[in-house]
Design brief:
Elements lengths: L11 H29 L1 H11 L4 H4 L2 H26 L11 H28 L7 H10 L4 H37 L1
Helix pairs in contact: 1-2, 1-4, 2-4, 4-5, 4-7, 5-7
Length: 186
């Protein structure tokens, strides 16, 4: 078994760059993602996310820009963590770093898995339409004044599944990086 990643101060610029690239990619993903999900349920944003992200009345005047801001703010940090971790787990025991193309493949993997999980969340949301939600969800949506509960729950399912996909993708990416490190060290 390979030891865990060692922190090499000389690699800090690589870690920071990978984190910044991950944040930018995830932020752009969030912007596009929330444009799509805003099209499915405006209420998810206007009655839930605007309050969570403290979207001002001025920002609410342009709801697509507000959704883009929410998308970026909700996802950039996930990409930063994923980028940092991929860079950290790409360090070989002797201090060398796996080739950049190997790390980029892991970024792509995380991105694709998040998208696939999001599609799964959308399909799950569609399959649940027509009610049948747990009473606590129905009570919560009623308290928020949600008129189209099917669309609201579909978007909620997409968002939750996307985060689960990013985490799953990161776990698989770390496993694959360990495998690449093992192959590179023998």
């Amino acid at each position: 078994m390979l030891p865990g990643p060692k922190f090499h101060l000389s690699h800090l610029p690589v870690y920071l760059l990978a984190g910044a690239i991950g944040a930018a990619i995830a932020g752009l993903y969030g912007i596009v993602h929330d444009q799509v999900t805003y099209s499915i349920s405006e209420e998810y944003f206007t009655k839930l996310k605007y309050g969570q992200f403290r979207i001002s009345e001025v920002e609410q005047a342009n709801p697509r820009v507000a959704a883009a801001k929410i998308g970026f703010l909700a996802t950039w940090w996930v990409g930063m963590i994923a980028g940092w971790m991929c860079a950290r787990f790409s360090v070989l025991p002797d201090g060398r770093i796996l080739p950049l193309k190997t790390v980029i493949r892991q970024f792509i993997l995380i991105f694709v898995v998040a998208i696939l999980f999001g599609i799964g969340g959308w399909l799950w949301g569609l399959s649940q339409q027509g009610g049948g939600y747990a009473k606590r969800w129905t009570d919560w949506m009623n308290a928020l004044g949600i008129e189209n509960q099917d669309a609201f729950m579909t978007v909620g399912s997409i968002h939750n599944a996307g985060y689960a996909g990013a985490l799953t993708g990161l776990i698989v990416a770390i496993f694959l990086l360990h495998r690449e490190k093992y192959k590179a060290s023998i």
